[in-house]
Amino acid sequence: MKKFILLCLLVLPLAAAARVTLVKDGKPVSRIMLEKNRGKDSIAVAVLQDFVHRISGATLPIVEGTRPRRGDVFISSLAGNTLSDGTALTGDSFRISTEDGILRITGGNDKGAIYGVVTLLEKCLGVEYWAADSYSFTKSENISIPLTTFTETPSFEYRQISGGGRDRIYTLWHRLESPGEVFAQGYWVHTFNRLLPSSVYGEEHPEYYAYFNGKRNPGSASQWCLTNPEVFDIVVARLEEIFRANPDRHIISVSQNDGNFTNCQCEHCKAIDDANGGHPSGSLIWFMNKLAERFPDKQISTLAYLYSMHPPTNIKPLPNVNIMLCSIDADREVPLTDNRSGRDFVKALEGWAAISDNIFVWDYAINFDNYLSPFPNFHVLAPNMRLFKKNNTTMHHSQMNSGRGVNFAELRSWMAAKLAWDVDADPDELMRRFLNGYYGPAASYLYQYLKLQEGALLGSGDRLWIYDTPVNLKDGVLRPYLIKTYEGLFDRAEKAVADDPVLLERVHIARLPIQYSKLEIMRTDLTSDPAEMASLLDLFESRIKELGITSLNERRNSPADYCILYRERFMPPAVHSIIAGAPVRFIEPPSERYVELGNTALTDELFGGSTFGESWVGWSGKDGSLVVDMGEVKEFTKVSTDFLHQLGAWILLPKQVRYSVSDDGENFTPIGAVDFPEDREAQVKYVPAVVETTKARPFEGRYLKVDVSGLIYCPEWHYGVGHTCWFFMDEISVY
Ligand SMILES: [Zn+2]
After folding, report:
1. Greatest Cα-to-Cα distance within the chain, rounded to the nearest angstrom
2. Angle, in degrees to the nearest 10, between helices 427-439 and 501-522
3. Rounded to whole angstroms, how far apart are CA atoms 566 and 551?
4. How far apart are CA 661 and CA 642, in angstroms?
5. Cα torsion at 280, 282, 285, 287 (round to 10°)?
6. Rounded to whole angstroms, how far apart are CA atoms 367 and 464?
7. How far is 98 from 74, CA to CA, in rounded Å?
8. CA of 295 to the centre of ligand 1 (A)
9. How far is the CA of 265 from the centre of ligand 1 (A)?
């Protein structure tokens, strides 16, 4: 990035000669001249006029024309991409100059002029835009700009980062794009089923869809048989239709549905993949190149994601094939170059960069299963973006939910946006600037907190996974001594801003992840103090209500429901299960990695949480069956077993659960069964299979048998269509 930034200060009348004065003593001096009334330039003009007014109270007049006079602000966009002196500007680049005493803001032919204006406001007039509807500046009746000339060009031509909600100025300020502005008709990711819906073609033409496990697998999440010529013809016709309806759009995504291992392995597709190092990207790029040839003036964007992440070895994407490469499987505790999962991604990135200079990197920067879990990844943002940039990435998306309450969402979005514009910016300087501006006197405590977490993460050697539970960090970033230290820092941070309700609320939001993590860790430990748990839960519940936090994870589970469920499931029970600690014997055992856990976890009175990686016992692609030995014949009136519903992890509810009892462990008598209806909802759920009787006619026996009929295969509407699915159970309770 070519950049010459002079230190810009608000006004000194004495230096007026060496400056362009916009406002003097609260009165407008400059006019804002707009070359011609172009849509995007008028936005630039309006933003400048608005903020100058907010700062100084003066309204600069807007005039149209091409002959500015000294002291004017002249805003224009290039028709092409080159300035008169030969400097190349991309669509979003801009130059700010004060030659001839005229403040010229010249943008490339996209949003350059707007970005020039917001840069002027930020760097020369001291306006900072922290978060949605949250900005700061110092009022002054005098505004002047020192003589300066500089050009900025973004590191990535396209920058997509969540943040700012519906605040349009935030989006402009941070130079962010949305896919809807760029991709034709909203086709920007996972578009296979929209282009060739299984509901339309699946039944009559299963051969259009992926072949694996010995059969065709049509379904809304199925992939295509890419070598079927009819599939190509239908897709061409669809694209022609879409581009006809959207003549101003030049890029469309033709990309695999979500899900892994679902690519076609028919004879023809497999032959192409085999000739390309065995990578399923072979048939994918073969197909996309044919499309790209049919639409030479358009770009065909396709995913390199999960099974297609690694590039083909024998075929190169045409220049108008855009590779949307995703780092979903990589961990985040260190930059991608420095752990095993990251290096696998880097290998893919470098491979693609060797055959394409049209790469869109989709990166992930938050815990999607636990928004309120600490996610100390700030130190990897800059090195990762520099890596992308070095490897021909022109488009970048950092996926990070920026909803209220998500761990340091405002800071994360702000830093990522700044870095996506300039990957060489100093992340530590950015972090301090944001913390100071957004948290005021609490900033230094929050900075210490974040740095302490970063060090603890690196010191622990733990992975930082985007679908993890905070429970897995309990011996590292979240070990007791550190939690105590974090709480001390938050106490001081709250005290520092106690008189400022806005800042105090921000600190309360920043503190939520520690409160949530404590609750999550305490529920996994039978020695936790129930009174402490109850009071922490009460505080957490009142805070999320007061702060308006509505979502705990990507599946939109609400924190209010979490609190209700916490009381039901996780607080030490008032009445204990009569099989607490009873041994379990498997007849149809769980999948291997859960056998050992299953020996104790099902009757330990600790219920699994929303992430399957802790306490849940799983069976994949089969039924389950087990017997609990109660030690002696007992009477009881209720049996309940919890099952996990977590579609994203291919964990579906089973079809049926049956209970039976026995005195001798061999001859069992059924006591009841529960059928689960199909559930397609994305929310994570704990669904109990309950069988009850009356006290007058209790169940009786020494052995309780639990038989579970699993779904075995993911259904056609699920991402794992055609593959085996899981069911997970935890805690069999008997009362
Ligand atoms: Zn095929």
Report:
1. 101
2. 110
3. 16
4. 19
5. -90
6. 9
7. 10
8. 23
9. 6
CA distance 330 to 363: 9
| Contact criterion met (CB below 8 Å) for 104 and 96 | yes
CA 210 to centroid of ligand 1, rounded, Å: 6
212 CA distance to ligand 1 centroid (A)?
9
Written as one letter, the residue type at 469 is T
Can you give the residue ranges of every domain in the chain?
Answer: 8-153, 184-248+250-315, 445-570, 584-734
Q: CA–CA separation, 359 vs 514, rounded Å?
A: 38
CA of 282 to the centre of ligand 1 (A): 12
Q: How far is the CA of 269 from the centre of ligand 1 (A)?
A: 4
How confident is the chain (735 residues) per 10-residue block, as mean pLDDT? 43 57 96 82 95 98 91 89 80 92 93 96 96 95 94 97 89 95 96 97 97 94 97 98 97 96 97 98 98 98 98 98 97 98 98 98 96 97 98 97 93 98 98 98 98 98 95 96 98 98 98 98 93 97 97 92 93 91 96 93 92 90 97 96 94 97 96 96 94 96 97 91 93 96
Q: Quick one: CATH architecture of 584-734?
A: Sandwich (2.60)
The pTM for the full model equals 0.92
Ligand 1 centroid from CA 227, angstroms: 5
Q: Does domain 8-153 have CATH number 3.40.640.10?
A: no
The answer to whether residues 523 and 609 touch, using CB atoms and an 8 Å cutoff, is: yes
How many angstroms separate the alpha carbon of residue 211 from the centre of ligand 1? 6
Cα 283 to middle of ligand 1, angstroms: 9
Q: How many CB atoms lie within 10 A of CB 136?
A: 12
Alpha helices in 65-148 (DSSP H): 112-119
Distance 274 CA to ligand 1 centre (A): 13
For the CA atoms of the chain, what is the radius of gyration? 30
Residues β-bridged to residue 33: 63, 74
- Specify whether the CB–CB gap between 401 and 409 falls below 8 A: yes
CA of 199 to the centre of ligand 1 (A): 19
| Distance between Cα 715 and ligand 1 center (Å) | 20
Cα(198) to centroid of ligand 1, in Å?
15
Distance (Å) from CA 239 to ligand 1 centroid: 21
The rounded Å distance from CA 207 to ligand 1 centre is 8
User: Coil, strand, or helix at residue 589?
Assistant: coil
In the reported structure, the alpha carbon of residue 208 is separated from the centroid of ligand 1 by a whole-number distance in angstroms of 8
Q: Is residue 77 a contact partner of residue 109, using CB atoms and an 8 Å limit?
A: yes
**Distance from residue 564's CA to the centre of ligand 1 (Å):** 48
* Paired tokens of 588: 């149809």
Q: What is the dihedral of CA 173, 178, 182, 186, to 10 degrees?
A: -160
Separation CA 322–CA 299 (nearest Å): 7
Token reading at 92: 């979003």
**Which residues have CB under 8 Å from 564's CB, separation 6+?**
none
Query: Tokens at residue 634, please?
Result: 């007992």
Distance 225 CA to ligand 1 centre (A): 4
Q: Ligand 1 mean position to 722 CA, how many Å?
A: 15
